[in-house]
Amino acid sequence: MDRLQISFNWLNQLEPNVAQAVQSSMSIRHYNAGSTVYHFNDPADNIYQIVSGEVQANHVDSEGNEILYHIMTAGDCFGEVAVIELAPRAQTTVARVDTQLSVLRGEDYNRLSIQYPQINQILLKQQCQRLRMAFSLLESAAIGNLRHKLLKRLQGLADIHGTPHKYGIKLAIFLSQEEMGRMLGVSRQSINREFGVLQKQNKLLLEDGYIVLCESN
């Protein structure tokens, strides 16, 4: 599969002296599995990088339906947009497993971004990449039947979390069928049916619970 690998780590794109200045201003926080990093509409006062663990971004609507937007893993940064905008948080973020985060305070980001203009240049490039990814997700959600949407979403996840596998690309994160349903706004039972069809078509397989997208023969 010819895929564009998407990164959410802007710190590793900085010049070494700039990265060192940012990292020296960060502190470490620990979150247990299931702990909330921040809630929807909270004031935005920090930027985060995952040292270890996983964090998911989601939203619960007024009727109690949860939308799972995306999942981030070690190295990924998040929380920048609301800090830059001086706006409330647009999502809720939760630690999926025991997680360690590096935290950059908003006032330190403001100081560093003035001192080192490269920070904003790199962030702008990454936000453009994230915007392209968001457009792709919107397109895949609007076009085709559930099977098509499921495959497109899995391919998008492979762009971010994929690792080479003898049959194709393996997702390095564990995703339950219920979580896939929350990503697509459908029931677990609907996802289960589509998984069954896709497995029979040799388009995906499950290996110890992890999803493998199979190469076309």
From TrEMBL:
Residue ranges constituting the HTH crp-type domain according to the UniProt record: 144-217
Name of the protein described by the UniProt record: CRP-like cAMP-binding protein
Record key words, sorted: DNA-binding, Transcription, Transcription regulation
InterPro entries: cNMP-bd_dom (IPR000595), cNMP-bd_dom_sf (IPR018490), Env_Response_Regulators (IPR050397), HTH_CRP (IPR012318), RmlC-like_jellyroll (IPR014710), WH_DNA-bd_sf (IPR036390)
A Pfam family: HTH_Crp_2
Organism whose genome encodes this protein: Pseudoteredinibacter isoporae
PANTHER family per the UniProt record, alphabetical: CRP FAMILY TRANSCRIPTIONAL REGULATORY PROTEIN, HTH-TYPE TRANSCRIPTIONAL REGULATOR ARCR
Superkingdom: Bacteria
Residue stretches making up the Cyclic nucleotide-binding domain: 10-112
CDD domains in the cross-refs: CAP_ED
GO molecular-function term, one example from the UniProt record: DNA-binding transcription factor activity
PROSITE patterns, per the entry: CNMP_BINDING_3 (PS50042), HTH_CRP_2 (PS51063)
Gene Ontology CC, one term: cytosol
